[in-house]
């Protein structure tokens, strides 16, 4: 018997080298594209923003009701824009020339943050802008996006694509306001959660049992819920306004933590829905990566055949993950009604479910990453609302589309590629 190890075929070395070369080329191409974009943004700041401003940009750091009041931060607008433009150009040139591979995402993220600061300085020149209130609004507005992303993580980690998050949010919002109007806010919250679970059950049955294309199922759910809620809103809620007048969850100020300047009102003076989001993010992270159920879910999403050979019921795991994800999506929908305004309007979710999908991809199918991605989207959403209030010269249409522009950037992969679970969207046929 020979003691020599078998040598891998030459073709395997050539294939590996080819893949490595292609990967390197893609990294270089993305680095140059993102570097060019950053240089272009620096030019916008230097030659458009800076020449057209004067005076100071003032940023409020405290809310009027806070016990500890911080002095507003005033910065010279034009000089600040020159400095920010040079920083942005420097980062863009570095990215264009050499790129930073694994650190490119961080570098590009920092550069875009610099541009956002420049945008805020330019838009608020000669005005006072309460930064604290915007940050509080950021966390609140990121809540349905983060929960929608979490819904997607639960589904896709098990191998089922959930495009129907938007429909689950909208269905939860409608059911939540009707049941909330009749019985109370907590009952409405439970009803919204159940609605999301039922819609997810429909997705699971069609995708897992009947093996219908999962993308099509999600689109159908979105269209069905949009049509149904629009019809009921126009035919029922208009005639019976008492069904569209639900109580709103009050904000809860957590002692000690809520008194911390800036951070306190931002994270610890929110509604029960926001606090539940914190708990769910931590809980799902622990369940996915620290429990037997999470290991089985991830194994089914990566290699269902191997999981089946180990005695794991692929269908059962996927059913549970999808239903859990749907319940989270329905819970997120309640934020739009009993979490904010107490009433339902047609298509009031405004595409937040799709942005949640983008946050899920941005976060690498990880609950923590999805949460921070949702904060980014929530920040831009809040920013355009605040800019509209103070009456900046930026067109309102441009401000309204800002969150969606960020979504396009994320999905296009300009700040790094993300790998989904290997069996994501692939029906499993038991042999």
What does this structure look like?
With 431 residues, the chain is mostly helical. Helices cover 69% and strands 4% of the residues. The protein folds into 2 domains: 105 residues, no CATH class; 273 residues, ABC transporter involved in vitamin B12 uptake, BtuC, CATH 1.10.3470.10. The protein has 15 helices and 5 strands. The relative contact order is 0.14.
Secondary-structure topology with pairs:
Elements: H1 10-49, E1 56-60, E2 73-76, H2 77-97, H3 104-123, E3 128-130, H4 131-157, H5 165-183, H6 185-209, H7 214-237, E4 252-253, H8 263-268, E5 269-270, H9 272-290, H10 292-302, H11 304-309, H12 314-341, H13 352-362, H14 367-390, H15 396-411
Parallel strand pairs: 1-3
Antiparallel strand pairs: 1-2, 4-5
Helix pairs in contact: 1-2, 1-3, 2-3, 4-9, 4-12, 4-13, 4-14, 5-6, 5-7, 5-12, 5-13, 6-7, 6-12, 9-10, 10-12, 13-14, 13-15, 14-15
The CATH architecture category of the largest domain equals: Orthogonal Bundle
Number of domains: 2
Report the average pLDDT across residues: 88
Principal-axis shape equals: globular
**What is the third-level CATH name, the topology of the largest domain?**
ABC transporter involved in vitamin B12 uptake, BtuC
- Tell me how many strands there are: 5
What is the helix tally? Answer: 15
What structural class do the secondary elements suggest? mainly alpha
């Amino acid at each position: 018997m020979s003691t020599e190890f078998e040598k891998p075929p030459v073709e395997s070395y050539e294939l590996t080298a080819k893949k490595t070369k292609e990967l390197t080329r893609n990294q270089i191409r993305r680095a140059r594209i993102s570097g060019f974009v950053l240089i272009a943004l620096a030019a916008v700041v230097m030659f458009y923003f800076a020449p057209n401003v004067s005076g100071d940009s003032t940023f409020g750091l405290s809310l009027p009701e806070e016990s500890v009041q911080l002095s507003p931060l005033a910065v010279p607008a034009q000089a600040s824009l020159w400095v920010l433009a040079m920083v942005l150009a420097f980062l863009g040139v570095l990215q264009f020339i050499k790129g930073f591979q694994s650190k490119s995402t961080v570098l590009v993220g920092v550069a875009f943050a610099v541009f956002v600061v420049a945008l805020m300085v330019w838009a608020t020149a000669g005005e006072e802008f309460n930064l604290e209130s915007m940050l509080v609004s950021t966390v609140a507005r990121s809540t349905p996006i983060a929960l929608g992303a979490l819904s997607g993580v639960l589904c896709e980690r098990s191998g089922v694509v959930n495009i129907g998050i938007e429909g689950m949010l909208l269905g939860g919002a409608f059911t939540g306001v009707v049941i909330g109007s009749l019985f109370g806010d907590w009952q409405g919250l439970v009803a919204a959660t159940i609605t999301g679970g039922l819609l997810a059950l429909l997705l699971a049955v069609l995708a897992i049992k009947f093996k219908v294309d999962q993308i099509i199922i999600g689109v159908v759910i979105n269209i069905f819920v949009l049509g149904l809620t629009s019809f009921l809103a126009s035919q029922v809620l208009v005639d019976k306004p008492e069904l569209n007048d639900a109580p709103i969850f009050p904000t809860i100020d957590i002692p000690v933590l809520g008194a911390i300047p800036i951070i306190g009102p931002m994270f610890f003076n929110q509604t029960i829905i926001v606090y539940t989001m914190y708990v769910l993010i931590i809980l799902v992270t622990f369940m996915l990566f620290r429990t037997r159920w999470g290991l089985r879910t991830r194994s089914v999403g990566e290699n269902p055949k191997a999981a089946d050979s180990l005695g794991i019921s692929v269908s059962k795991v996927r059913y549970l993950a999808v239903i859990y994800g749907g319940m989270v999506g329905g819970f997120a929908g309640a934020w739009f009604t009993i979490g904010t305004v107490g009433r339902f309007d047609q298509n009031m979710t405004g595409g937040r479910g799709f942005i949640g999908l983008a946050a899920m991809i941005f976060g690498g199918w990880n609950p923590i990453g999805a949460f921070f991605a949702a904060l980014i989207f929530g920040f831009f959403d809040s920013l355009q609302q605040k800019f509209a209030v103070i009456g900046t010269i930026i067109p309102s249409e441009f401000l309204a589309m800002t969150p969606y522009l960020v979504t396009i950037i994320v999905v296009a992969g300009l700040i790094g590629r993300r790998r989904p679970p290997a069996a994501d969207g692939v029906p499993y046929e038991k042999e």
